[in-house]
Amino acid sequence: MVNKDAMEPFTTAFANAWHLIWTADADLMGVLALSFQVTGLAVLVSCLIGFPLGAILGVGRFAGRSASLVAINALMGLPPVVVGLGLYLLLSRAGPLGVFGLLYTPTAMVIAQTVLVTPIVAALTAQVTEEMHREYRDLFATMGMGQVQQAATLLWDGRFALTTAALAGTGRAFAEVGAVMIVGGNIDHVTRVMTTTIALETSRGELALALGLGLILLVLSLAINAGVMGLRNMGMRLAHG
User: Fold this and answer.
1) Residue 11 pLDDT exceeds 70
2) pTM
3) Is 5 part of any domain?
């Protein structure tokens, strides 16, 4: 039989977590707002870099292309703590970028997430555009289109598939904890986002806020995956329509 007394702290924590969500607790909303701000900006910058980079790798035929593809795919598995350590060394007062005073700021967290997300967006974009290029290669040749024009055309034509790459990067960014904690410092009301708050509150035994944010993070994860599947199905319908 389950010991009700032993379960009471957990049931109370869940009840308190739901209360924080339902009442839009100020601390919870502040953490959410910063999380969306940091992740949204990081994904935007990653797409601005990753889409054209991936398209050129998918379409282009140049020396070093294979090595570049291998590097991009390898960078998808970058350990977040290593990225955080590297950026810490760059952004600290003794580092080459220390003069800008970016360490322990949301900007540093955006940079960290951008470094982690850009390879994902670029690699998935390269895969999509390369597959599409095989189908349209003869048409492009007859039209006399250069590689840049081909890349731009495929980016537009494959926009639904590429949106899934952006959503995949968004999921990675929201789930990130190691790098943003190192360069952000997890400072209350300054650089504290969902994942770092969950880690801190759990270590302190304050489960209500951690559970509340965890539930929201799960809902976001489900929404992102549903969005990926929906866009993929839409693209397939359009392709066969």
Assistant:
1) yes
2) 0.86
3) no
